[in-house]
Amino acid sequence: MSNTTHCFRLRLSMLVSMLALDTRSSSGIQLRSLQLRYQSAAADQIRQRQTSFNTFLRSAFSLIELLVVISIIALLIGLVLPALSRARSIAKQTLCQSQLRQWGLAFEMYAAENDGFYPHIDGRDRTSSNPQTDAERADYYFGWVDVLPPLIGEKPWRDHDYWQRPGINTVFQCPCSRLAPDKSYKYRPRRSGYFSYAMNSCLELDENCWPPYGYKGTNWHMPSFLKTTSIRNPPRLILLFDQLLDPEKGYGGSKHNPTAGKYCGSYPKAFSARHAKPGGLLGGSILYCDYHVQWNPSVWKSDWPDVLEVPPLGDPDWFP
Questions:
Q1: pTM check: above 0.70
Q2: Which residue, 11, 156, 159, 315, could crosslink 311 as a Cys pair with Cβ 3.0–4.6 Å?
Q3: Nearest 5 degrees, angle CA 111-CA 117-CA 118?
Q4: SS3 84
Q5: Cα–Cα distance, 318 to 320 (Å, whole number)
Q6: What is the percent of the chain with per-residue pLDDT over 90, rounded to a whole number?
Q7: DSSP category for residue 211
Q8: CB burial readout 181-190, b (16+ within 10 A) else e
Q9: Cα separation of 49 and 55, whole Å?
Q10: pLDDT digits 0-9 by tens, 246-297
Q11: How many of the other CB atoms lie within 10 Å of CB of 167?
Q12: Rounded distance, CA 233 to CA 208, Å?
C-alpha cells in the first residue's frame, strides 16, 4: 500500500470520528432541552393545582358556618311542618263537612220522594238475615246507609261484600277517622264494615231501641220512620254526626267501648271529637235537620249522669 493511500484512509477515519462526536454532542443538547421543558411543564401543573386547592379552601365552609346553616334549616323545618300538618287537618275537616252536606242533600231528596219521611236509622248492621218484626224489617230494608247512597251516585252499603266495605276514602267515612287494631273490638270492622258517621237514633225510637233516660212508662215507642213535618226545631235537631271509632276513647274516654263504630245509628256517647280548631280544641262535625253542618266540641250535657245511654225524652237536640 502506498503512503498516499494510507494518508487518505487516516484522514477519512478522523473525519468520521469528528462527525460522530458532533452528532452525539447535538443529541445531548436536544435531550437536555427536552428534559428542561418537561420539568418546567410539571412545575407549572403543580403550581396550578396548588393554586386551585388554595382557592377551594378559601371558598369552602368553615365548621362554624356549616353548623349555623344546619341550625337554620332545622329551624325552618320546625316552623313549616306544623303548618303543613295543620293545613292537612283543616283540609280533612273541610272534606268531612262537605260529605255531611252531601248526606244532607240525600236526606232531603229522599224525604221529598217519600211523602216527607226519613229513612230508618239502622241498616242490616243490627238485624239478622231473616227479619221478623216490623222494626227489624225497617232496619233490614230501609236503613239510611242503603237507601240514600244511590241518590248521590254511590252503591248501597248492603251491596258491598265482606272485606270490601266502604273505607276512609269514601263518602261513607270521615277522612279523619282511624280504626284501632281488630283485637280492640268485639266485632271485625275490617271484615264486616264500620261507621264513622252515625244517624241520631232518637229520631225513631222503635221497639228495637233503648228507652229514654228516666222514663218510667211503657208507651215511649216511636214510629220506625220520622215524618219531617213533625220536627219542631230543625236547625237544632241532630241528624247525622261524627261517630267514635277508637274503643279506648268510648263514653267520653272513661271506659272501653268494644263496639265503637259498629252501628250506623247511635246516641250521644258515640259522638267523636276528632277535628281540632286553631287553638287546639277538639270537636266533631254535625249535620242538623235543616241540613246545615256545624262543628261542636261536645254533645254531652253537664247535668246528664254517666250511666245515661239515651237522652231524656223531649231533649230538643235529640228528639223531634
A1: yes
A2: 315
A3: 75
A4: helix
A5: 7
A6: 46
A7: P
A8: eeebbebebe
A9: 10
A10: 888 766 666 788 999 999 999 999 999 999 887 788 899 999 999 999 999 9
A11: 15
A12: 25
